[in-house]
Amino acid sequence: MGCFPSKTLDYPRISSSWTRPPASQALPALSAAIAASAKLAASNRADHLGKAENSIGLPKSPLNIGEVKMTELDYVQWDITSVCNLNCKHCREKATTSNARDNLDLQQCKSLIDQIVAWKTRTLSVAGGEPLLSPLIWDVLAYGAGKFERLVISSNGTTITSETAKRLKSYVTCAQISIDGACAETHDNMRGKGNFAHAMRGIQLLQDAGVQPAVRMTVHGGNMHEVTAFVDLAHDLGLPDAYLRRVIPSGNAKQLSPLSAQDLKRTLGEAIKHGQEIGMHVASADYFCQITFNQKAREKAEKTQAANGKVIGGCAIGIKSFYVMQNGIIAYCPYLPIFCGDLRQDTLEKIWQTSQMLKVARSIRYNLKGKCNTCQYKFACGGCRAYAHATTGDILAEDSGCWI
Q1: CA pair distance 2, 10, nearest whole angstrom
Q2: Alpha helix segments (H runs only) across 364-404
């Protein structure tokens, strides 16, 4: 029957643990994962991965598949459409305007939500492309409303009208808007002329409708000088938080220069310190940033010395989260779209349990290279595998953006 039945099914829960297979089974598993990743090329999202054997940098010798305890899911990102009205310089996609590709139909969307809910997922983030351009967005949000602790929509904010904001109020707990600078000149340089004003208006309309907005800035060499001003902007908008993310040089962003580790440390540190001074919570998605600037995160990470190799933090792909593309393909992550499974062919439960690439994901911490391998925090961080691959071609390489 495949993943998308005509009615809701009672899907099994996640198993309680992941058992380490014999070393002799590891190499065939990896070979199968690499071969399967070529299937993703049909979705036009594997252009930067290539089709060559071992193109993602996995070793030719067997990996040590570690034991990782699997629990309820924390987070799922679903790109509901690839269509977007912008073509940002730092987007993980390439040009997507008017490119609908092969999106799921409404029945399939509802089945996907049912399966995600069955695993007691806390947060579902609906993204794109620009999700508000999907013809199914309102049906999807209405079906998902009330089924998650957090139902989030990630938007560029430029298409939000008063009516859109009012409708979102009925469904979502948060609307994340991308703002890539503290002024129009910087933001529009990345996203196109006039889009800073459109995004600011979208945020205001969301607030007027009672929707909680959040803002996130992708940091690169062209806007690093504005991070404290970005925090001020979030503060002036009356927001409690400001989020920062370093650019991952994939897709369009290949043309941008990522920050050096020390420049990144200084930039994020200045933003976090400024936030503390004005009463703003400033955060970065990178766990080594949290370990450095957040005492509680650092204390938790230091406990891993006695955790017997248990993963307690960092990227949760294959452990507590996963990523779904607009056509129902589960990929490794938005910035590293290696094929993990096809929801049009299998149930989510089957993919979770049998996907060779998800098995690789669960083994990553035990097989890292360079400084990530010897880092005392590798079970609380592990670096960003997409960044490692984008900069070295090796998914297991050290994260050169880390300053620890």
Answers
A1: 14
A2: 370-374, 385-392
